[in-house]
Design goal:
450 residues, alpha/beta, TIM Barrel, two-stranded parallel sheet, 11% strand, globular, binds manganese (II) ion
Length: 450
């Protein structure tokens, strides 16, 4: 099909769904926000400014209900044209209709989400230029911005043994060429961040893997991306997204602490922050809150892929985050560092395979946006108490021997002298259950007030 015949604007794809509005917690309308009120001020900023919600193109627009045992369960009306460019244009129109109706300020995509790869790099790049022109127009018309873009370096068989860490140098070159293109796209679309998720950067077995050489390659690759972004004036925040496993047995970006060690070892700390995903935290055997805290403590929490896993399944189920407790604990870390800066909360979450109605896409996002609104309200109320709890628990380090220890004015002989000449330490309760009950009380207050 020639480009002239492609319809770049079409009919509505969600004609029966209105723009979603805040109606309050008493509303019985499933297509309304119960707690997320975009204009409500929370500690000086609106909810919309705090939460910076982004819609993920891959799950929301391209999710088909496929799983490892089963074929797609849904066919989306924007995904039916036989021509790849027409399909991409339809999907872009549906996407921006969805983003507008759900009232999200941002979206995120991989190159392969917005248009299908062609048979060779030159033609793939030409296709990307086509769809980026449409995305640029839609961004201008709607005011919706690109939170981040990224490059799919894991689906195509050429990347089966990794991208930057592939044992074949020609694949590394191909991966770099694709990242180069997407840095240009990010620059053109004003992306506020650019994400590196090492989809298949890892290994299946050390019998065929030179781990040190692969890690060295990954660092060189990232420096190459930093240099090229600088060259073209693309000043987005670069983000690395930790993931412990899946699809590889071991992923090099295992968890936040592993990523920080890698970035420090290779001198990349100044150029990257972390994009923390809830379900990737659980794959690493950590809580979401733990990973956020590790990143934040290092000044490296840049953005969040908000979702949840299933403790009984154990793989990356990418469900919508709806547990108030989890969203509240996450928002405490985010508020405590003064927000996410150029980052946001990206819904890296998909419908369950059996949720086949078009409106389910809206209902799922509404539930999670509401859950983060509740989390924000709880965090805003609880943060001062949280700081007070920590300050009290560690106050023996504010004076005397504790203060000397923190300011490096003490040695082991002086410690021994203190221990010998003072009463035996007494146990001091951590009051965990009391704090848990208090936290539930604040959650209850927030729910009652809404
Ligand atoms: Mn995931």
């Amino acid at each position: 099909m020639s480009q002239e015949k492609i319809i770049t604007r079409g009919p509505e794809f969600f004609p029966n769904i209105p723009r979603i509005n805040y109606e309050g917690s008493d509303s019985k309308n499933p297509l309304s926000f119960k707690w997320y009120n975009p204009v409500q001020k929370v500690g000086g900023k609106t909810m919309k400014e705090h939460l910076r919600f982004a819609i993920s193109y891959w799950h929301t627009m391209q999710g088909e209900g496929r799983d490892i045992f089963g074929n797609p369960t849904v066919v989306r009306p924007w995904n039916t044209a036989s021509d790849a460019k027409q399909r991409a244009a339809d999907t872009a129109n549906a996407a921006f209709e969805f983003f507008t109706k759900i009232d999200a300020g941002y979206y995120c995509f991989h190159d392969a989400d917005v248009i299908e790869e062609a048979g060779n790099l030159r033609e793939s790049n030409e296709r990307i230029d086509f769809i980026v022109g449409i995305l640029e127009e839609l961004q201008t018309e709607t005011g919706i911005k690109l939170l981040w873009n990224t490059t799919n370096l894991f689906s195509n068989p050429r990347f089966m043994a990794g991208a930057a860490t592939n044992p074949d140098a020609s694949v590394v070159a191909y991966a770099a060429a694709k990242v180069k293109k997407m840095l240009e796209v990010g620059s053109k679309l004003g992306a506020e961040n650019y994400v590196f998720w090492g989809g298949r950067e890892g290994y299946e077995t050390l019998m065929n893997t030179d781990m040190q050489r692969e890690l060295d390659h990954m660092a060189k690759f990232l420096f190459g991306a930093v240099d090229y972004a600088k060259k073209i004036g693309f000043d987005a925040q670069f983000l690395i997204e930790p993931k412990a496993m899946e699809p590889s047995k071991h992923q090099y970006d295992h968890d936040a602490a592993t990523c920080l060690n890698f970035l420090r070892e290779y001198g990349l700390m100044d150029y990257f922050k972390l994009n923390i995903e809830a379900n990737h935290a659980t794959l690493a055997g950590h809580s979401f809150e733990h990973e956020l805290t590790v990143a934040s403590n290092a000044g490296m929490l840049g953005s969040v892929d908000s979702n949840r896993g299933d403790v009984l399944l154990g793989w990356d189920t990418d469900q919508f985050a709806i547990e108030f407790y989890d969203t509240a604990r996450a928002m405490i870390v985010i508020l405590n560092q003064g927000g996410l800066g150029s980052g946001g909360l990206n819904f890296d979450a998909k419908l369950r395979r059996g949720s086949t109605d078009l409106e389910d896409l809206f209902i799922a996002h509404i539930g999670s946006m509401d859950a983060f609104a509740v989390g924000l309200l709880v965090a805003e109320k609880y943060l001062a108490r949280h700081k007070e709890i920590l300050a009290n628990r560690y106050n023996s380090f504010d004076s005397g021997i504790g203060e000397q220890f923190e300011s490096d004015n003490i040695d082991f002989e002086a410690f021994e002298n203190h221990a010998l000449n003072n009463p035996e330490p007494v146990t001091i309760s951590g009051k965990q259950e009391l704090l848990e009950n208090e936290f539930n009380g604040i959650l209850n207050d927030v729910m009652k007030a809404a």
